[in-house]
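Nijmegen breakage syndrome 1 protein
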Amino acid sequence: MVWALFPVDPVSGEDKYYIFARGTYKVGRKGCDIIINKDKGVSRIHAEIVVDALNSLNPLNKRPFNTLSKVRIRDCSKYGTFINKNLGQKEKVHELPNKETTLEDGDLVSFGTGNATYRFCFVPLIFFVCSESSQVNQPLQDKISAIG
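Predicted structure tokens:
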């Protein structure tokens, strides 16, 4: 399972960011995991994306992506971090309890004064493994499962 932040209105040189593992990812202007230079209102350390759990997606499982992962965003800034839940009403993360909220597939996240907007979304990670033998290569299957 892979999560991503894609710029909504990309400019030349603006990066896409992929999240492959659990942990805390700092968002800001300098020295962060996710660098945002598009908006002058973005703090040096503006926000944190906290991935509490990344679970494998079983194609036979009908549960939505949101129940498989636990991802939160925490505001650490002066100008704010805003979440637009699936094209609904904008929420200022700074005003929510503990200055954080859960991120879900399709949420729009704006940093600073609003010029830097990203779509938080699930990106399917698909592996094709070809083998000459009919037996499953268990070590390979274990490595692929560990990726999520």
